[in-house]
Amino acid sequence: MWLKFYEWGKQYSGLNGFYMTEILGSPILVVTDEAVAEELMVKRARYNSDRPTIRSIFDSKSTGGSMEYLPLMGKNQYWARQRRLTHAYLTEARNAHYSGVMYHEAKRWLVRLIEDPENFQSSLEDMASKVMCQLTWDDPNLSEYCAKSARGLLTQMSPAGPITNVITPLWHLPEVINPWKRAERKRHDEQQAWWMERIIHTRAKMALGLQRPCFARQYLERGHKRSNLSGDYEASCVIGMIALVGVFTVAGPLSYWLICMVHHPQWQSRVQKEIDEECHGRMPTLEDAPRLPTLRACIKETMRWKPNVPTGVAHEMEANDVYRGYFLAKGTRILPLDWAFLRNETKYPDPGNFHPERWLEPSWPTYQEPLTQFPTIKGMTSFGWGQRQCLGQTLTQDELIVACGALSWCFNLKPKKDLATGADIPVPLDKSNSLLIIIPDPFQMAFEPRSSARKQEALRLWEESDARDERERDEFAKHATMTLEKPRTDI
């Protein structure tokens, strides 16, 4: 879809930077210029920050009070208070050094890649899911179901998902003869029940003093009155959505990082050299990030070259408007075409190729100083616009720095060899799903430890981190048990 919209943009946008189309009766203003997107969705955000209805999801905008899906929600009271809560939780988590969770899971992932490199795409997704499950419920064992739940919702909300998202009248067939509605009923009810179960389970553990800090405990400690949420059900949905969104917004860029490094070994070598010199042989941390501009440049160029949400996420106009002499009716969808923004030849010379140097050398128009701060992925158009801008930009950047830094420290990322011919098995550049948030189609590659010593160090780091995590959990539980057993003296 993004390629066709981009093609039409070259043909119809002209100097305007936008064009109008209609898909099965829905008017869509496709924006191909960043300045237009800024004008419509930031400067005029007050009237252009609604979301269109996703037909194949029950009450996606929460118009009927479902309160379930913050990123899809209409501009209403639920959206406003859930957005405030999410921003507060993510900010407090970073201030509380959530990096420890990321380091722990990155070390686990390195060992999984050493021991089972064939299943790297599954372990990559699981790593991102484990980080989010620890932050939300302090339980990495929930990661498999969380990732499955994220895939289900992502498919359901995408134009390339159920046909009822495109041919919407089919959705209104009676449920008894409507397979799409029955499938969504099953997915929805199962997901909502699981989210609610997590709140109930967290409360039970808190009663025993066994629940360590996490977003669910944070909500229950403070109570719904302080959060302005309506109660446990709404809280379970907010926290559940934080977990789900954090899976593919990290898994997608990280998957494309692997592809970029395989196709550009010279940049892989430069990142490895920078890490070796600046970190003196140890695995990099977020404290090292200001001294690792090449690593950050390759991450940012990956996200520019292979954007995670190439179509952008549509806004819906809340009022009639006139823009540059064109009448735009209330209900018109504004589609900020991220693929077009990131292929702008003036801002990004040679946009179709991978050039991390565009962020590192003053001769490129995107260069910014100081290099201790720039390049940064925060503020990229891929994170959305105005009042709908993604709240997890810092978390995404931190997790990518930790994961990509760990990969570069431990492995040479290479094409896999065909055992019969000895030739390299190609890693495709243009094969992906067509969902709203894209990830590459399955491919093969090799993870070669950079040395025997580096391999052994990765194994040692995970063994040490795993033992420490188990010890801390045991000590927390022991302390809770002792507190419960301690006789009261205030009677």
Automatic annotation (TrEMBL):
Belongs to the cytochrome P450 family. InterPro entries: Cyt_P450 (IPR001128), Cyt_P450_CS (IPR017972), Cyt_P450_E_grp-I (IPR002401), Cyt_P450_sf (IPR036396), Cytochrome_P450_fung (IPR050364). Its cofactor is heme. This is Cytochrome P450. PROSITE patterns: CYTOCHROME_P450. GO terms for molecular function: heme binding; iron ion binding; monooxygenase activity; oxidoreductase activity, acting on paired donors, with incorporation or reduction of molecular oxygen. Keywords: Heme, Iron, Membrane, Metal-binding, Monooxygenase, Oxidoreductase, Transmembrane, Transmembrane helix. Heme binds at C390. It comes from Xylaria hypoxylon. The chain crosses the membrane at residues 235-259.
